[in-house]
Input
Amino acid sequence: MSLWTSLEPPSATVDPGASTTVRLKLRNTGDVVDEYRFEPVGDIAPWVTVEPQSLRLYPGTTGTVELSFAPPRTSDATAGPNPYAVRITPTEHPEATTVPEGNLTITPFTEVRAELVPPTVKGRLRGRPKLAVDNVGNTKVTASVSGSDTGDQLSYDIHPSNVQIEPGRAAFVKATLKPRQIIWFGSKEERPYTFAVKRSGAVPLDVEGTYVQRGFLPGWLATFLGLLLALAITFVMLWITHKPQVRSTATEKLDKAAVSTVPPSPQAPPSPAPPPTSSAPAAPPQTAEPENAGGGGGGSGGGSGGGSEEKKKAPKPTAATAVRKLAATDPGGKHICYRAFVAGKGWTAPECDGDMAGTVGQNRPLTALNIAVFGVGGTASAAFVHNPQSTDGQGHYVEPWSGAPDGSDNYVGDSKKDAPALLGFTLNVDNGGGAVCQAVHQRNEGWAGMACDKPNEGDRWTFGGTLRNDIWVEAVRFTV
Output
C-alpha cells in the first residue's frame, strides 16, 4: 500500500443542528506523484463535507483534509454512536483504494409537538377530539396526557393517558369530553379546555381547544310551549266564564215533533241517492291507461339503454370489491386490500395482503389511499399531507378523520386534481380485530421497515411516512 492515513480524533461528538470537524492526515508512501479523491460513505454521509475534495501529494509528503459533520436537528439524526468512513481513491492506482473509519456520537435531544384534531368539537352530551403527539426529537419519549378547564365544567376520559413515542413517530390519544350540566333550552355555549402533555423534567406542553355545547332543545321551542300553555289557560278561563246555558224547552219541542210526525207526501223530496253499485267502476278512468302504457314503454326502453351503458362503463374494482372476494373464499381469515392514487396516473388496481400498491423510481407521489379490511372489525385513518404554507418544513393533518366497517371502502387523502402529496398517514383496526402493519416507500428514502400497531400494549395506531414536506409516499404495503 502506498498511502498512510490517520483520523484526528478518531471519535468525535456533535449536537444535532451544530457542526464539528475532524482532520484526516495522509502521506504518499509511494514513489510517484499521485492525486487522491475523497468520498464520505455510510449512513451519515449526507451530513459530511470534505474540504478539499481532492489532494495531490509528492512521494514522501503529507497532506491534511478536513471532514465537517453537520447533522440536522431532526429525528433522522439518530442519537448515539454512528460509524462513518471516507473512501480515498488514488488517481494513478485506483485499485489501491483506502477506507479509513471513524465514529461520530450524536447527542440526544427531545422535542414534542401536539395538535388537536379537530381543535373545536360540538355536541349536546359529549365531544370526541383526538390529540396527535409528534416526537420530532432523536430519542424515544414518554409522556402523559391530562385535561383541564376553567370552572371544572367538563369531565375527561382520555385513552391512552400515557404514551411512548419513537423518534419521528406520532401517537394519537382519543378523548371524550362530557359537560357536567346539560343545557335543556337555549343557545350553544363555548367551553374552552386544555390538554397538557407532560414529560419528566420538562415544562408541560399545553394544547388549547374548544368544546361547543349545544342546547338539548332549541330556545324557540321553550317560547312556543310557553305561549301554548298561556293560550290553553286563557281558553279554559273563557269556557268557565261564558258557559252555555241549557234551557228547559226540550220537552216542549219533543212534544211538537211527536205531533207533526206524519207519513211524507208523494211530493216530498227524495232521500239521498244510494252509493254507486259495484258495476259503476267496471273500467279504470280513461287517463289511467295512457299513463300505464307510456310508463311501461319508457321503463323498457330505459332499462335496455341503461344496461348497455353499464357494460360500456363498468366501474373499476375498489379495495372493498377485492376484499369481499377474498372473504368469500376464506370466510374465517383476516385480509386487507388497498389501492393507491398515483399523481399523473390515477388509481392503481387493488392489491392485497402485503403486495405493493404505487410506483417505485418514477418520482410520483401518492395523494390518496383506498383501504378495506375483513375479519378485523373495520378501520380508521387520518392523512398527513404537504402544506405549502408551512413555516417549519412540515405538513399537516387533514380533517375530518375517515373510517369504515369490515368489507367497506375507507378513503385516506384526496384524489382530486392538484391534490396535495401524501407525506404520511395514521391507521388502525377495530380493537377486537387484531393488528395492522404497514411499510411505505418514500421519495429518496426507499422502503421503511414494516411497523405495526400494538393493541395489547395500548398503542392502537401506526404511523407510516414522515412529517417533512419534501419527502412523500410513493408506494405502500399492508398486512393484518
User: Anything to note?
Assistant: Residues 54 and 380 are 54 Å apart (CA to CA).
